[in-house]
TrEMBL record:
PROSITE patterns: NUDIX, NUDIX_BOX. Keywords: Hydrolase. It comes from Sinorhizobium glycinis. One of its GO terms (molecular function) is hydrolase activity. Its cofactor is Mg(2+). This is DNA mismatch repair protein MutT.
């Protein structure tokens, strides 16, 4: 997967992603992203591994100009996982994400009974994508991913920082 990509590709993707964040911070003032905990009918959660970031994350990304958070969510789920919503998503929280920039916020949704139209094939952005049982998450699932799942399960108090 990510290790299969030529080293030259992996080397330039990370600085390119950083430049994109800088551009959005300057051009937009505040940046807004969406992410979602997407569960299938078996209760498994869908996670993605980006080619330019370590670990497994919830699918999501930036909300484009003239796009609502919901429209951005639907677009990102389709792009990153070939996922379709079968029920309206539930807004969980809006988090401040100072790790990305001092002006970044993440709108977090819960999506139940999502359907995958077809398996996601690795591409330039997404190295891997799949459903995982909650009791068998990948070892390198990000701390934020694990915190959000614990919040959804009610085992920890919801935070306001991503």
């Amino acid at each position: 997967m990510d290790q299969d990509r030529p080293r030259e590709v992996r080397i330039w993707l990370r600085p390119l992603a950083r430049l994109a964040h800088i551009y959005f911070a300057v051009s937009r003032g505040m940046t807004l992203g969406v992410r979602a905990a997407c569960f299938d009918e078996q209760g498994r959660v869908f996670l993605v591994r980006h080619s330019y970031l370590p670990g497994w994350h919830f699918p999501g990304g930036g909300v484009d100009r003239r796009e609502t958070a919901l429209e951005g969510l639907v677009r990102e789920l389709r792009e990153e996982g070939n996922l379709q919503l079968t029920k309206p998503p539930l807004l969980v929280q809006v988090y401040y994400n100072p790790g990305t920039s001092k002006r970044d916020h993440v709108v977090f949704f819960r999506c139940d009974a999502v359907r995958q139209e077809r398996p996601k094939v690795a591409d330039l952005e997404i190295a891997a994508a799949q459903f995982f049982p909650l009791d068998d998450l990948p070892a390198d699932a990000t701390p934020a991913t694990r915190r959000r799942l614990a919040e959804l399960a009610g085992t920890v108090k919801p935070d306001t920082f991503w």
